[in-house]
Specification:
This protein has 6 helices and 2 strands; from the N terminus they run βααααααβ. By secondary structure, the chain is mainly alpha-helical. The chain has one domain. It has a two-stranded antiparallel ribbon with strand order 1-2. Helix 1 (10-28) packs antiparallel against helix 2 and helix 3 runs antiparallel to helix 4 (84-105). The longest helix is centred in the middle third of the chain and has 32 residues, at 50-81.
Length: 170
Amino acid sequence: MKTHIEIPGLRILKTVIAVFIVMIIATLSNGALQRYEMVIVAILAIQGDVVKSLKEVKTRIASTLIGGIIGTIAMCIMYIGKSDILNIFLIPICIFLILYFCSKLINKSEYIIIACYVFLAITLDEVPEFGWIYPIRVMANTIVASIVAMVVNLYSPRRSKKRIYVEKEK
């Protein structure tokens, strides 16, 4: 009895290649970039076609910058204020700013989730590095991984669907 095994599609192969490249970049950065964040971004950025991938990368980078800038400002305020009471009010106010800015001012509600995630990654980290290092690291992880994924996804050779037939024992 013969059965067939589908050869992986280009999206699977491109995702694996993008993950491989960001792992190399993160490793070579000697801790400046975080593998976990970069791998997640690379996986999410590879879409079924280049147009969708470009849109995803644009959304991810813009969202990261919005959340990163607001998060950096909030982090500085939190560092100066050093008060849990301040933080209880500051975090929701900043989330409101992100929601309002993305949905009402620039009409890009698709930016909200990632912007909020980046903001919270910066402000709620238990031991964030103060200054520009941590927010820049968070933003750099996303931007570098997004660009790698986009470049990998630009390669689109024409492939026919191929199957491998193997004998299956009964």
